[in-house]
Design a protein that fits this description.
The protein is built from eleven helices and seven strands. With 320 residues, it is α/β, with parallel strands linked by helices.
């Protein structure tokens, strides 16, 4: 045994690079075996410490039992990456759902997975679950309206203020008017004109313009409308109005030099007709605020109808 141990150490040293000892797995197994069958294995050992051989034996012991249990694969079957991704997707898209609800949906889709596994892989919200603002606005769109001003300069540097009132449900411009001197009383009258009788919305969103205070606020209270003021310097909180104003500018006003108030009214009126009846909207599934019927192929020849003096065009099918 001693001769075998010494010859093996000489062979290890001969194949080792200078200043670096390289011991293979078989070398470690040999010394582990010698330590089990030979009591004097420590005396001829030179290249490593006896504690190192004991450490090799412990590592081999752990590896043996790890491989032994891996063959049997105890516990539940592993969850595939597809199911994990689906669980994360459901929990992110539905923050109000818990593990039982997601587990039920997975069962309906034919996935056999435990509810505890769903709870493990679902995304845990950092805050209490809440619906996103977009969902909240869509659920209340039929009782929401918004208003805002935008300015239009004229050829002779006079500035007109245009007030628009927008219906959130179909993005319809309910009312508009033009003035050079907007006041709270004037805005209150526009609100009364826009919402006659029982057509008042439940909420009206607006910014913190001073003209929306005083008489205007009292009028809203009398009409049973709750005014919602957005945060300071946060136009994105009245995003629908801002988007409509941007569309009016891009589609029409950026291409026109306004002469006077009458000219501005004559320009905005067909612009709003085009906006309601022709212009498609992403939020409305590529439809118009006033729904347009789909004209299938074969119902007639495609004709062109100009709008805004040829600035935009509409395409319809005309029966032969």
């Amino acid at each position: 045994m001693e001769i075998l141990a010494l010859r093996h150490q000489l062979a290890v040293l001969q194949r080792t690079q200078p200043r670096r000892l390289h011991i293979h797995l078989l070398d470690r197994l040999l010394w582990v075996l010698l330590s089990r069958i030979w009591q004097g294995w420590r005396e001829p050992l030179v290249i490593v410490k006896p504690e190192t051989v004991i450490q090799w034996h412990r590592e081999g012991f752990r590896l043996f039992w790890r491989l032994k249990f891996r063959r049997k694969r105890p516990g539940r079957p592993a969850i595939t990456k597809e199911i994990k991704g689906l669980i994360r997707k459901m929990s992110l898209e539905n923050p109000l759902w818990g593990a039982p609800r997601i587990h039920g949906e997975l069962l309906k889709l034919g996935y056999q997975v435990a509810e505890t596994s769903v709870a493990e892989y679902m995304v845990k919200p950092a805050k209490p679950p809440s619906q996103p603002w977009k969902t909240f606005l869509e659920n209340h769109a039929n009782c929401l309206a918004a208003m805002d001003f935008f300015t239009v300069p004229t050829l002779f540097f006079k500035v007109f203020h245009v007030l628009i009132l927008l219906d959130h449900e179909r993005r319809r411009i309910i009312h508009f008017n033009v003035t050079t001197n907007p006041t709270a009383a004037w805005v209150a009258q526009q609100i009364r004109d826009a919402f006659p009788w029982d057509s008042t919305p439940r909420y009206l969103i607006h910014d913190r313009d001073p003209t929306f205070q005083g008489t205007c606020k009292d009028t809203l209270k009398v009409m049973g409308i709750k005014d919602i003021k957005i945060a300071p310097a946060s136009p994105w909180q009245n995003a629908y109005c801002e988007r409509v104003i941007g569309s009016i500018r891009r589609e029409c006003l950026d291409h026109v030099i306004v002469m006077n108030e009458a000219h501005l009214r004559r320009t905005l009126t067909p612009c709003f007709i085009y906006y309601h009846e022709t212009l498609t909207h992403l939020w409305l599934a590529k439809d118009c605020p006033e729904p347009r019927a789909v004209q299938p192929m074969g119902t007639g020849e495609v004709i062109t109808i100009p709008h805004l003096s040829g600035l935009h065009h509409q395409y319809l099918r005309k029966a032969a």
